[in-house]
Amino acid sequence: MKIIAIGRNYAAHAKELNNPVPGNPVIFLKPDTAVLKDNKPFYIPDFSSDIHYELEVVLKICKEGKHIAEKFAPKYYEEIGLGIDFTARDIQSLHKEKGLPWELAKAFDNSAAISNFIPKSEIADLQDLEFELKINQERRQLGNTSHMLFSFDYIISFVSRYITLKKGDLIFTGTPEGVGKVKQGDKLEAFMQGKPFLNFDIK
Ligand code: MG
Fold this sequence. Notes:
8-stranded mixed beta sheet, binds magnesium ion, 203 residues
């Protein structure tokens, strides 16, 4: 499986990092070795002193598809969850300055924490879905999919023009504003529509 992640899909987040709001989705990949699940702790790697959390809604692809029309995109994901796109912001900033790719900042081991997934049919309106990150019981991010620049269906259509989607692939759909640094001892809790999805420690 592969993980496809969308950058700058919430205007307020693009702005907080001084990035322009994009005309097309910004795409990057994480390998399967990035997956961190079952609420296992995240260990801060030794190569970064500025690891950021980014809470995102994650789609799980349920069948293979290429050149998927936007109107058929809903048939390609049945389940939805939450994830943290851990980012070595110090490395990313350096690589952005130099015009280098982001992999070392985004694709390292355990950089894609994921929750369990629920059927999307349990969500009343996917385009009005609230999700929240608390650290040490304090709210850090509160997002709503109504603020996405590119919808789930558009993302699937856009990505599948270039990359075949396969069953089990995950799509991280971008983070809202409020990103920041994690430190040892932090406890991360994420909620979708008020229900707990993630609960794990930073070590
Ligand atoms: Mg992200």
